[in-house]
Specification:
Low-confidence stretches: 80-94, 100-106
Number of strands: 16
CATH topology of the largest domain: Tumour Suppressor Smad4
Mean pLDDT: 83
Largest sheet: 6 strands, antiparallel
CATH class of the largest domain: Mainly Beta
CATH architecture of the largest domain: Sandwich
Number of helices: 2
Strand content: 35-45%
Structural class: mainly beta
Distance between the termini: 59 Å
Order of helices and strands: EEHEEEHEEEEEEEEEEE
Helix content: 10-25%
Length: about 220
């Protein structure tokens, strides 16, 4: 048993709450949920699921396999047991909510100019939307490859890229990048950016997503 202290965020009777608690990282997500709901005396009759960095944890995954570590922030979400929503649909709902909250006008609004991310070996990822999602596809939690402008699975053998990892936003003639609370963070020209802030980027800047290095290129006036 390897205990860690985490912060749990959850809703109870419509009120946002948080609690600090100890969990064993060798327990499964299902076991963690059972222990959490008992500890917090949450009502029965609903299905609870655990999330880390907006990623739904499979019931049978052990917490250490999901990357849970000391000081992590986890979320407990409640799914009505009378509905048919599944993990994939919940993930899509979360992705859509994420896109609707961060910059731009619409998740599918086309980018009015040409911009791309270039890899060191010459590959090019064309940014198609005013909000371009960067990450690693995982259909089990609602992130199919087509939900990304920049899908980096093939370049990330060690899985350092989170499913939703970062977003590039084009608004009012400027580009910015935002870290979506990823596990390994985002660097711009070698400097780590804060997940709580957006960072302006310009043509030629170097973005590091996990361990994947990309150059941002865009039309300039």
């Amino acid at each position: 048993m390897i205990p860690v202290t985490i912060t749990l965020q959850y809703l109870h009777e419509g009120v946002k709450n948080s609690a600090s608690m100890r969990l064993s990282i060798d327990m499964t997500a299902r076991e963690a949920v059972q222990g959490i709901t008992t500890y917090l005396s949450l009502p029965a009759g609903s299905t609870y699921r655990l999330l880390r960095q907006r990623q739904l944890l499979e019931h049978d995954i052990r917490l250490f396999e999901a990357g849970v570590q000391e000081g992590d922030i986890l979320q407990l979400t409640e799914i009505d047991s009378n509905t048919t929503i599944g993990a994939s649909n919940l993930g899509r709902s979360m992705a859509g909510s994420l896109l609707s909250r961060l910059g731009g006008k619409a998740g599918d609004e086309p980018l009015p100019m040409r911009a791309a991310l270039l890899t060191q070996d010459g590959r090019s990822f064309l940014l198609r939307h005013t909000r371009a999602l960067i990450g690693r596809a995982d259909e089990r939690v609602g992130y199919p490859p087509e939900s990304f402008d920049v899908e980096l699975t093939a370049m990330d053998n060690d899985r350092t890229v989170s499913r939703p990892h970062a977003m590039i936003v084009y608004a009012e003639g400027c580009f910015t990048v935002r870290d979506l609370y990823s596990q390994r963070g985002v660097q711009v020209n070698g400097q780590m950016i804060s997940p709580s802030q957006v960072q302006a980027i310009k043509d030629g800047d170097i973005l590091t997503i996990g361990v994947v290095v990309l150059q941002f290129r865009c039309e300039t006036k």
